Amino acid sequence: MPDQAPEDSLFTRIGGKAAVDAVVDLLYNRLLRDVEVGRFFTDMDERAQRRKMKVFLAYAFGALPNYSGASLREAHRPLVEEKGLTDIHFDVVAEHLQSILLELHVPESLVEEVMAIVGSTRNEVLNR
Length: 128
Prior knowledge:
The chain has 128 residues and is mostly helical. The chain is built from seven helices and no strands. The chain is 65% helix and 0% strand. It starts with 9 loop residues before the first helix and ends with a helix.
């Protein structure tokens, strides 16, 4: 994940690498304990998963020109097909993310931008 990004990128405006690192770490701490979604994170390499999420968000927030990881559809297919990932679970994750951003005092206008990006991934994550 880059230490620097274009000044006008969402990545830079929310606080750069330090902010994305903090958000992802707090998010996974909550998701692992959440009764609705915690089961989706069993049998995974948590450290690798956090790293993948940080790189993806850096890309999604404009810090990286390309993303070389698995597509969201491909990465989430087993969760949809084998564990029953649905809109309900997507919403739980999104709500945790939004809550963390607000707790970290990210300006509401930037939180709205983040959530719009997250929302735009729903169909791909849910393999529709």
